[in-house]
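The instructor's notes for this session suggest beginning with a concrete chain rather than abstract definitions. Hand out the sequence below and ask the class to guess, before any prediction is shown, which regions might be ordered.
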Amino acid sequence: MKNFIKFIFLGNYFIGLLAIALSIESNVQLRLPLNSIGYYILLFSITVFYYTYAYIGPLYSKSKNPRNEFYRKNHRFILWSQWLLFIVFALLSIIFLIKNFNSIKQLSSWSWLILFIMLCSAILYYGLLPKSFYKLNLRNTGWLKAFTIGFVWACCANLLSFIVLQVEKGQYRIDPVLLLWLFVKNWMFCTVNAIMFDIKDYAHDSNKELKTFVVRFGLRKTIYFILLPLIIIGLISLVAFATARNYGVITVAINLVPFVLLLMIAWSMLRPRKIMYYLIVIDGLIFLKALCGIAGMQFIHY
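After discussion, reveal the predicted structure:
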């Protein structure tokens, strides 16, 4: 069981499930039908492939870093997994394009702009450009890295799923204010999550002179003056928005759970944590947030 847990979390397969969970949460909160199973498989495959890309370089000697050691020991399997994920993604993408070609052509300019920005952010984040564009690698911008990660996740969960739904099942009317609110909420929640992960990489980022929040301000100042204020602002904003929309008390209480836990975990980051704590507990909060968002809609009038 221990090896299975490491396989799921260190192999980034849990991150693929997070992408699906957040997309389902968005559709449920917008009171829209779910996307097709094919889209969710496509989303899972490209998410796992994308996040694993950084760890499939040449083999190294034994490492004290559990994640690097995992990829060293399972190098052959990870390579096969990457090829399988890419083939699944490519095949499903071709099927999707052929099946929905006419609908894709009718997408609005705004939809194409969103897709273009998402693609550019994803490419720049991993530096998938010639060396002449190295300065545009968003991973090397330090403080901007966390906001970029949060932005891509919010686009994927809230905007991409809605665009694909229109392609698959036709036009739907939604509340643009609600969509914007859900987008910003996911953006900030995932950004806080990314800043927490920067705490794990503090020593590595410091040696590379990557000016993340933790490297720039130190651990305590990052927690006290960045993480905690962002989370408290999120809590207040959630209550204010829910009150303005006349959401029920039960719905508000359920949606507050992940924010309260996020606040507690941010406070606990003052002590050193192992990598599995970040992968299971901190990433697990995103999954819990999705579950709470889905469950809360069942009691929206209570």
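Then share the key points. The longest helix spans residues 143-169. The chain has one domain: 2-299.
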